[in-house]
Please model this.
Amino acid sequence: MKELLSIENLYVNFRTLWGLVKVLNGVNLKIYEGEVFGLVGETGCGKSVTAMSILRLLPSNAEISGKIIFKGKDLLKKSEEEMRKIRGKEISIIFQDPMTSLNPLFKIKEQMIDIITTHNKIDTEEAYKKAKELLREVGLPDVDRILNSYPHELSGGMRQRVMIAMALSSNPSLLIADEPTTALDVTIQKQILDLILNLKEELGFSVLLITHDLGVVAESCDRVGVMYAGNIVEIADTEELFENPLHPYTQGLLSVIPDPRYKKHLKPLRGQVPSLISPPRGCRFNPRCEFVRDSCKLKKPALVEYKESHFVACHLYGGNPDD
Amino acid sequence: MRKKEFIKILFRNKLSVVGLMIILILLFIAIFAPLLAPYPEQAKGEPNLKERLQPPSSKHFFGTDHLGRDILSRVIYGSRTSLLIGFSVVLLAILIGLPLGLIAGYYGGKIDLIIMRITDIFLAFPPLLLALLIATTLGRGLINAILALSISWWPWYTRLVRGMAISIKERPYVEAAKGMGISEWKIIFRHVLPNSISPLIIQATMDIGSAILEAAALSFLGLGVQPPTPDWGLMVSEGKEYFLNYPWYPVFPGLAIFITVMAFNLLGDALREIMDPRLRRKFL
Amino acid sequence: MKLKEYIAYRLMLSILVIFGVVTIVFFISRVIPSDPAALWVGAHPTVEAIEKAREELHLNEPLIKQYYYYLVGLLHGDLGISIRTHNPVAQDLKSAFSATFELILFAEFIAILIGIPLGVYSAVKKDSWLDNLSRVLAISGVSLPTFWFGIVLQLIFFKYLHLLPLAGRVDTITMLEHPLKVITGFYLFDSLVTGNFVVFVDVLKHMILPAITLAMYPIGLITRQVRSMMIEVLQENYIRTAWAYGLPKKRIYFKYALKNAIAPALITIGLSFAYTLIGAFLVELIFNWPGLGRYAAYSILSMDYPAVLGVTIVAATAYVFINLIVDLIQVCLDPRIQL
Model:
């Protein structure tokens, strides 16, 4: 498998009135060509910030350091203009809330044509044709009518399909899907997810699927990374993760799944997500961990390969603290 | 928002600190005018015909007017007139507008409809025009100018408070209080009123500035304060007759109006920015 | 509701509001503690002359009947006779109206031209020195006493720099040497269309100072409003989408964000029109501009109630219609507004 994206030691802090918020605390992950990589964690754990870091779209009060290697080049070293040409062309994203992610005052065709002509040297007429084609590809009927509609005239599911069409308009290599189904009706969620997976098979891009829904992960991802308070605590193949969760946090997360297969010896999580202004020293999970030891409060555990292609960041598994 | 955060943000915004300082200095000047003015008698109107239209000098920092009076002294005393007008117009407008807004918003229905249609008609006049008309009718003078301005101003407060009252009365704690059989007036005064106070303060801060500005315009048109009362608008109006040859005469009093109104606007603007969560930057 | 029906409905509402305004203004003006008949007769009143004037002006009849006469006259475009000029008020207003309107339009044009870009850049560069500068400028704009600022500009550009004329709408001698064919009453427009460039330049020179004076308040209002709307819009998800798909910066700011910000800012632009209308009362007095404002000021000072009434009604009507137009533009800009 060829490596498409590699995030190495990514730190992101936000300067705020209340102090420095340490949102990402050395994130490491790799995404290979053609795979669906799931990123799971609770709200506020830094999943979306990771996604926005890849696109370099963090607010101006953010401080970012580390490496984001995409196709062999560090995105953090690119100029703003180079980055702009990557966004929407090589790396695309669809967002959680299709209701507010489309500009309410412009027709769908205006928004789509603008994106298509930005990244491809074609005229408006060809772009319109291309937009029609894309909409058909994402399974929308009556494409002329939709192109001439305003966003508020479409349903949530239709809007998300439009978003997907826009995201795929320039054949990206990486599609980031940030909670793409969370805001939708349950019946439509599956349709949208299947659509993304089918298009992935067809077009061959990789997907970074961000979600808090373990059901979605189980259904669609090849590999999964679990995030907690700005750290990746565990990465494994989906099946392996569900069957052999190593990190206490992952075990806690899985314990809430109503499927008895996964419930062997898992205990539910206690306590609360820590403040990111003054996070716990050492392992950020230590205040909630029932296996906590002294070393957990002193040193941050590194993400190490405990078994073949199963990574975990926890002192229980002998992670080398100096790494 | 916590008080500490509020103060922190307020003082972070340099412009608001400037505004606050100017207002405090103005209050100080207004209170101690008799001690600060070099010629208090001239400030109150006593002519000094020997020294007519003198340019600024060490004796008269801002020069003298057409009756030889020290302009600096009159500008210092003028702060009293301006602040008096600014505060009393806003106070009166709130006294009329606030209860009407509370009633309209809290009770709704027909009474709301009637009150709001009346405000509609008042607000159909361009600003200042109605005040001009009322001032013409009531006759000239300080009190009448204050009345004219407050009569044309109250509908703004009615609208503001009504909007707040409507949104607050839907909140659970008000519903709960109603359910417990607490009297409606108690609910209004305990819950609805305190919760409308912060937008009201922002509006009032800015309005004090605007009221001073409009009162100055009335004076300028000869409909406000009458001579020999020291008043900035009136001084600009009188100075206008002499301005080409004696520019200092209208320039200094006008500058005083400008700085004063600006101070209230700076503070009001900063308050608005702090309290309006939509204007604060989103984090995460 | 269709657009046409909506316009008809709004027009009807506007007419009702104007009717309310006329009523209030009429009754307020009749409380004025002065005797219009005495003013009408002039410097050497005799009892008979005053009595005759009372008769002519319907002053002996009950107030409600006078009100009825006034309304009937109004429907025929008759606003009564000015006590001060002895001309029909409607006629006085007509010539003043175009002078004022030209000035207001020019001022508003300046205000929009400066206010919108300044507000946009201020929002984009929030908390930078440019933002602070434009905030100070905006707050200055709404804090300046118009009448005083006019005087200051006159001192600078007339007295000290000798660049621009002191006051007036056009130089009388220039007008005599190059007679202007009046078509619309907007001198700038008329002189341009008829190719009378000498007058055009002269009118423009006369217009600059009063227009800038008048524009300061709207500049402040518009800059402030556009800034805060833009700040809000720039945080919206659809703007994030535009960034995420690599659209160029300028297109995001000036196309996708500005259109969303401008719809609510339009209300402010409408309101600022109203302020220039009233600002004109003061500015015209300073710059001796033969418009509604100067006419109103003189009428108020001489207790010329038919004239005051007329000006107020015209100003309020203009205000109501400006608001109506603003609402209609908003409907056209925002497809989500349900009629």
Notes: The radius of gyration of chain A is 20 Å. The first strand of chain A starts at residue 3 and ends at 16. Chain A touches chain C through 28 residues (CB under 8 Å).
